[in-house]
């Protein structure tokens, strides 16, 4: 055994590499040697024990190698009942295969080639309900951290051969698996090529979540707005693939990316499609109003009390004067104090365990708000406004756009303090200019509002009935713009008529 160990050139070359010297320091790096008595062949198995399934190795692989006759690696495929097996003579892929759950097999007569047998240990959590995009009506499945499990959930909902899945590896250290999904014949190839090119050009050592991909391939990395939509719902991914978009699945992340996207999609919940179109349209308009209210209500308060108190009605002015009679702080400091307290409570509630976080958020808000009014640090009217503003910001169905909305209030506050309502309008013009210039994979981020596309408004600010949505979005430039024909189901008369 020792003599063959020394004479195995491939193994000596394998061990002399710098990477293998490092591997030898790891306790889970194993090399075992065996002997087949039927044809007098010695063979070795090399693997990382923490990445392979030991039961598959000892119950499926080893018994066949020790009890069946074989003379070369080509015979191994016939005797081992594992379909995922690869034979190669390239030593450079050894490290990649070992750390993807493969067992490397070498035999004495075939010293210059290696057989890689797939025996990965799959540790995945069970399917659960969506936590961020929870819906009362509709499917209750959510993505998990396993890329294969996520692709399975998507394949079940899009069971067509045109669904193309391209695999990439990103990260100099993490070697994270990434899958790019699109439907051939519908999705614009330019969008697919753009996503593929940007992911291939990523130069980063560690990719642990899909959020890294968003920040690395975005059109404008300095923008406070996310330029790719992420979702944890398989049904939403199936819908956007049929619409002509591209999906990006990242191994280790329970969120799948959608590109290109527009700003109106961040305010549309997927549950809208499970409701009647009247209700869905109302809730969409309510969310947009809530976002505008959340951003502007505190700056307008500061601007009115600082520069434009003559615009306040007399009855309301009397109430404001009585509520601010004992407040020593100017409106801007009063507003900043309450806004920062609200953000502090949010962050504390998010970082603490669930039960404790809920208690801190509710009790802390009541206690601090009541104490600040009684101490004369803030007025009760502003406290109500800030509380309503915080409540309105929670109506956004996508968490990342909600964070952006929370940040936007502070620039509006500063401009309101500087120039009053003129400052608010000026800040709004800056924001609108930024949104007009912003792109998502080269597509306009403000579509269908700018450039104006009337046809795409049918599923933007409002949602029209499904029979009115025959065409796919124009900005996607799909190869098949028509979704279905004009033929409608016939309405049969009642049998008593």
UniProtKB/TrEMBL annotation:
PANTHER family in the cross-refs: LEUCINE ZIPPER PROTEIN 4 (PTHR22550:SF5), SPORE GERMINATION PROTEIN (PTHR22550)
Protein name according to UniProt: Spore germination protein
Predominant location category: membrane
Species: Bacillus methanolicus (strain MGA3 / ATCC 53907)
Signal peptide residues on this chain, from the entry's feature table: none
InterPro entries: Spore_Ger, UPF0353/GerABKA_families
Entry's Gene Ontology BP terms: spore germination
Membership in a protein family: Belongs to the GerABKA family.
Keywords, sorted A to Z: Membrane, Transmembrane, Transmembrane helix
